[in-house]
Amino acid sequence: MDVFVIGDSISMQYGPALESGLKDSGLSYARKGCHAVDSQPSIAAAIAALHPPDIPPENGGDSAAVAGYLRLLAAKPATVRCRLLLVNAGLHDIRVPTEQLACAASDRSHRVGEEDYARNVAAILRAGATIAEHTVWVTTTPVVDSSHNAELPGGPGFARFDEDRRRYASLAAEAVAASPGARAADLAALTVQAAVGGGAAGLCPPGGSPVALTAVEASACGRRLVDHVHWDDAMRAAHGAALARVAHEVLRG
């Protein structure tokens, strides 16, 4: 297999465009939840034990679930092996209970805390190195606070904040920088560029701190959302095409 994808619902939505772009380059594609390995009885039972019950099996879930899934694959040599692993986790980790909507950042309790998230990302990258020749960490797309949290209390049942997304992204960048051979693709920057007028994502250097959205960028991104956090069809196509270019760069460059 050439490219294997593990990620949240954002990755599920850009998946068709990514698969199409890979196919144009003669590269094969599969993702968690849609691979034959996921139906093997012993693996299926283990996946069910670590997978959050509120999301479909194609969704990677939070960083703990992604790390657990990858450790499972890494421990079974006859399962998934690929040339390139595209992986992300973060949106589920930064969920905040709705009753903490007005709390200061330091007082919020996230689904996965920062220290655990950092450990999980490091574990993801270690396991990725076992099953893949190359691992690319895909950054989490921006959260537009006013769009996401305006839906509450009739929306997703939890809050998110972009400052948390940026802080967790910095932790992931540190883990990438400390992992030999791992790289990152800045889907967050691509999203902002596409929203305000175009741009293409390639490999970004590991490390560095994500920059807060300007008012103009947040407004532009907000116009491209179809709900609290998911992007319109054109943005999904841009995500998939950009990551297909990343895969081509890594595997054919």
Adjacency order of strands in the biggest sheet: 2-1-3-5-7-8
Which CATH first-tier class would you pick? Alpha Beta
The CATH superfamily turns out to be SGNH hydrolase
Classification by helices and strands: alpha/beta
Mean pLDDT across all residues, rounded?
88
Oligomer: single chain
Q: Helix and strand succession?
A: EHEHHEEHEHEHEHEHH
CATH topology: Rossmann fold
| Uncertain stretches of 5 or more adjacent residues | none
Q: How would you characterize the overall build of this protein?
A:
With 253 residues, the chain is α/β, with parallel strands linked by helices. It has a single domain, classed as Rossmann fold. The chain is built from 9 helices and 8 strands. The strands form 2 sheets. A 6-stranded mixed β-sheet has the order 2-1-3-5-7-8, sandwiched between helices. A two-stranded antiparallel sheet has the order 4-6. Helix 2 packs antiparallel against helix 3 (63-74). The longest helix has 20 residues, at 233-252. It is globular, with a radius of gyration of 17 Å. The model has no long low-confidence stretch (mean pLDDT 88).
Question: Which terms would index this structure?
Answer:
6-stranded mixed beta sheet, single chain, 253 residues, 46% helix, two-stranded antiparallel sheet, globular, alpha/beta, Rossmann fold
